[in-house]
Amino acid sequence: MGNTTLTDPQRGQLRTTLEAEQARLQRELPRVTASLDLSACDHADVIDVGAAATEREVSQLRLEQVRDRLEQVEAALVRLELGTAGTCEGCGSPIPFERLELRPTASNCVRCVPKG
Ligand SMILES: [Zn+2]
Question: What pTM does this model have?
Fold first, then answer.
């Protein structure tokens, strides 16, 4: 299908990496959610409200990171299924496997990656 440069073994390797990452994130998600609930409950009784608020912010931030990452991983798995995983979404150029090996969720070539 299409102009992907990936071979079947390469796609298989990426899928394995992504599925492991997905499983790890899915295990982490309830833990982060739980720590968020916990800090929310404690909040009223804690004398140092500032510390509790900071802790909650950290959990909230972590939760967003995990959710974002999970979305990226799932989107990458979909692209693998569709056969578009090796193609840059920006310019349509092939993404080198070496880049996908380092960043299996990459959907752009190095030239099209937004800086920062
Ligand atoms: Zn590109």
Answer: 0.81
